[in-house]
Amino acid sequence: MALVMGATNPTNDAVNEIYAFPTSYAQQRLWFLRHFEPESTAYNVPAAFRLTGTINITALKNSFSEIVRRHETLRTTFSLRDGEPKQIIASTVPVAITVIDLRPLRQSDREGEIPRLIAEEMKPRFDLEKGPLFQVSLVLINDNEAVLIINMHHIISDGWSIPILFREIAVCYEAFSTNVAPVLPELPIQYADYAIWQRGWLQGHILEEQVSYWQKQLDGIPAV
Q: Would you say residue 6 has pLDDT above 50?
């Protein structure tokens, strides 16, 4: 049994593009790899966590909505503009949580379902142009135990991001569960700011030095 809270995909009207920013070089590489191997899920960044205690699903959804508001990268899709991939940042993106309820099953069957569900939820092929580039699922095991599954494409996330994400979700969840506003400092910069800085820095003699170094390192390797 599955229940989806919120919209599953934002419509074109809901995307509300803010601006098309340049990608970082890492994002440009991942854009290329996504189109080079369109069926691959190798660049998904999944995480699963077992939760204990009574789960407040509304507070959890509000927590993710706040995190998406805070972090532009979670509101970002990618599109070609003038022959180059660009970050398209939306002003708002609806958050959906797919709730999978295992409680009607026998206790002996629930634990066996969890690994299968985790594997299933971690292998979607994200559409970099349409988004969203993350998904959230909550597997209810019993009234006091659940598994939270988050999956994101590597183009908007990495291993360093996961602890930050869960730390902020914990703060928001505790606040929303007690009907108060979460207290988190506003972010001084966003990832698009870093991409603009990187593009401005890595040019001229710095870029020439980097290219020259790798040309020397790769000299003589097999053509393939």
A: no
DSSP 44-80: EEEEEEEEES---HHHHHHHHHHHHHH-GGGGEEEEE
C-alpha closest to that of 68 among 193, 152, 194 = 152
What does the longest C-alpha to C-alpha distance in the chain come to? Answer: 66
pTM: 0.84
Which residue is associated with the tokens 């930050």? 164
Q: Which residue has the tokens 């660049």?
A: 43
Pairing of strands 84-90, 76-81: antiparallel
Q: To which residue do tokens 């229940």 refer?
A: 3
> How remote is the C-alpha of 220 from its chain's centroid?
39
Report residue 193 as tokens: 């700011």
